[in-house]
Every structure is written in structure tokens, then in C-alpha cells.
Amino acid sequence: MSAANTARPLQTPLKYRAIFLSDIHLGFKGCQAEFLLDFLKRTESDFLYLVGDIFDGWELKKKSYWPASHQAVVNAILNKAAKGTRVIYTPGNHDESARHYCGHSFDNIEIRDTAVHTTADERRLLVLHGDQFDSVVKYSPFLSKVGSSMYGQLLFLNRIINGFRRLIGLPYWSLAAHLKHKVKNVVSYIGKFEEAVVASARLEQVEGVVCGHIHHAEIVMFEDVLYCNTGDWVESCTAMVEGHNGALEILKWTESATRLKSDERAQDTPALNAA
Description:
- The protein has helices at about 5, 35-40, 55-60, 70-80, 135-140, 140-165, 175-180, 185-205, 255-275, and strands at about 15-20, 45-50, 85-90, 105, 110, 115-120, 125, 210, 220, 225-230, 240, 250.
- By secondary structure, the chain is α/β, with parallel strands linked by helices.
- The strands form 2 sheets. It has a 7-stranded mixed β-sheet. A 5-stranded mixed β-sheet has the order 6-7-8-10-9, with helices on one face.
- Helix 2 (about 35-40) runs parallel beside helix 4 (about 70-80).
């Protein structure tokens, strides 16, 4: 019997009820577009939420940077929208120019300042980027952009480190994410940000909130409110997904993709031996 007849199909899409992505930063050299393209090709969903900072307008104003992989990400999202996925885009501070179009739809993509997603188990989740609660962004745009420049330098160093790790066969590792968990002031800032976002959810009388902005993926209960942060695609390559039963989880794609590829190789090997 041939391998073609015995091997199971590879790359069967992972199917979810909803997918939430934020902080992709297309147009920024730190964007991990290749990881994201792999994720988009391997997943399907009824809903796709783009939770802000999909484009990095700050970087694009400084220098035009738009490689083919970044356009491929846009094309993949447009293709999903065209095939029936409901795509909702809530802009952030790096793509704030899109906020001028809130309330409109383009190419089957709905642009909203905020949205409310109802899970399969009937929990109502407020969806927004989250920069509305960042006092630095809100009250001192100049200081925020200085911080963004320093962050870009850190991610440049991160690329060098991971280039070396690939050469010696080690998996992707985020220096920026590691430091974020170690620096006391950053940990304190994250805590205050989460509290502000949760307080807003309580005012809206919803069961939870989904945001991005701080590049720190997490799902955690704050007493009666569920706080969800989707993470990013410059450091950790994370997405939040909802299963068809309403269960929510964070996928770290640098790890999930490795497991999937390993499973696919394992499926194919017996068939090749049988041939």
C-alpha cells in the first residue's frame, strides 16, 4: 500500500468559535509575520477579533517598511472575511487613524471602537484595545513614543538572540517577555492596567473583558470579572481562542506550531515505512 493511501491528511485546520488577535504591528521590523501566517493558515473560526495595533502607524510614519510577509497577513485576513468569517477590528493607539472609520465596514471587516462578544456559554465580553486606560499614552503621547523607540531596540536585540538560537537548534524565546516579568515597575504597571480595564468592564455590566496593548497574554478572574489579554505577535506570538463550548485559552504559537509539526511528522512516518 502506498504512503498516499495510508497517511492521514496533514495540516487539518484547528477550528474555533472565535479567535482574538492583537498587537501584530504590521509595518514594524519586530513583527513576527511568518509565525502569524502559519497560525492563520492552520486555524478557522466563526469570529475573528482584531483587538488593535494591527498596523504600526508610528513606525510607518518614520520609515516605510512593508515586506511581502506583512501583505500576506493582510491578504489572509481579507480571505477569511470573504469566506464568511465575521471579522471585527477595534483599533489601538498605533493604528489610531482607523478610529476615524469606526461604525463602518470595509471588505467585510467591521470597524468598532469597542465590541461585545457573547461566548457559546452566554458570557458577554467587552472587546477593546486597552490604550484608553494607559495614562502614559493618554496624557503624554511624546513619552509613549520615546518608550516605543526603546522597545524597538530591545526587540532588535531579541531578533539577534533568536537568530543565534535557530542556528544551534533552540526554539524561539522572548527576551522582552522575560524582562517584563522581572522588572518590578513593569509588573506594577501591568497590575494597575488590569485593574483599570476590569473596572471599565464592571461599569459596562459585562462578565468579562478582552484587550491587548500591554503585550502580556493572560486569562484570569478578578473577583466577578474575567480579564483576558491576547498578548502580541512581536514578542510572544500568542492568540486567545474560544472553543465551541465557550472555553477560552491562550495559544502560544511558537510552542503550538512545534507540537503540530511534530505530530504531522509522526503521522506520516508509519505510512512511509509501510510503503
